[in-house]
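Ticket #4471: structure output looks truncated?

Reporter: J.K.
Steps to reproduce: submitted the chain below (458 residues) through the standard prediction queue, then opened the result file.
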Amino acid sequence: MVMTEHMKIYAATGALGMGFLDSSLERAVDWSPHMIGCDAGSTDSGPTHLGASLPKMSDAAIRRDLARLLTARDKLGVPLIIGSCGTSGTDEGVDWMRRITEELARELDISFRLTMIYTEQKPERLEKAWNEGNIHALPGAPEISAETFRECSHVVAMAGAEVFQKALEDGADVILAGRASDTAIYAALPLMRGYSAGPVWHCAKTIECGAVCSTKMRADGMMGFIDNDGFTIEPAALDAAATPLGIASHTLYENADPFLIVEPSGVLNTRDATYKPLGNRSTRVEGMSFEPKPYTIKLEGAVPTGYQTVAVGGVRDPLIIKQMERWQSEMMAQFAERALELFGLTLGEDLHIEIKNYGQNAVMGSDEVVTAEPHEVGLLFIVTAPTQKMANDITRFVVHLASHWPIPEWDGFISGIAFPFSPPEIDRGQTYRFALNHVIVPEDPLELFRFETVEVGA
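Returned output as attached by the reporter:
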């Protein structure tokens, strides 16, 4: 491909389904970008979206955003790349997005070459890689064994830029990918066209969340202009600006180190990056570099942990609040005894009961530094058991016992918890935990991924 003076890439919004301004998309089209991209998923919302292959965004929300992007792509004749379909990037998520895309093509009377990239992994393949020593833990990863891969309901591999490049080389107009590096969506085409890796990866990192790094932190679009010395960022909305502080601070987002940002093919180094304002709405960034490293692909997997029922209540009795820890530890002992005699379940093994005290260390726990005494505390009871019925049944007696659990200062039978719902028990269904935060070392960047291409439309 021929390198132009600069490459224009447009990130339509931070997450497909979150929306964007029509006026922003119109302005972006006037800029004539060389590609349109959009991330559609993340692990931010927890393991259930991967474990249950459950999209976070609704069909209606995806449909509205995607219809506008397909129309813009058709007008421009440039690639549209969407990563992490269905939130978690499972095969089912990609097929869900494919169905919506094909329906929209018929409704809009447009045609294009559509490529699906599937990133879900078979446990047998991962077991083999594990036994060969080709899977390694990332910092903070849980302990695993070869059996872990079979215990996971879904395992996905995070696609890098090379995977998107393969689809582009094969003539894809629209790409729907499973789990993917957010930045790879935007780095693939500029790297294919020969632009320096440092500016490409840093620009991709900056625009991956759309306009949230602008002065208007909302779901909307951001344009990146890349050349071999650096890149320039400008939001599509005229009431927003890209400032040096906003752009530089975005390297903190989802990164343990804001200066060294790891991608499958290497590490982006922003230590020497400079951020300079251009006029009132743009920022110019230079000085970054990219160091190639041995290729690795991140694996994400989720394991079922049981069925859950929750209940919410509130305590305003100052005498209870002053002795909350003792009050709850005593009732927990009774919960354990009752669950064992009714269901044969042992607390801490096949049954888990947790009480979170919102207003009193619920978020930070023992790391909390604020010591002021609250005047009321919200209680969240969380019961996880082998079946939904067991979880619900146990929560019923948990709630009843807790609501009347005494303290020494009381005389008589008193209720200490106010519940906003009747009945207070709320079933949450199957729950999951992340079981993998590992990388696999492939022989080839493409070997874990599968491609399917179809002609869509007239």
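Triage note (M.O.): checked the attachment and the full token line is present. The chain has a mean pLDDT of 95.
Status: closed, working as intended.
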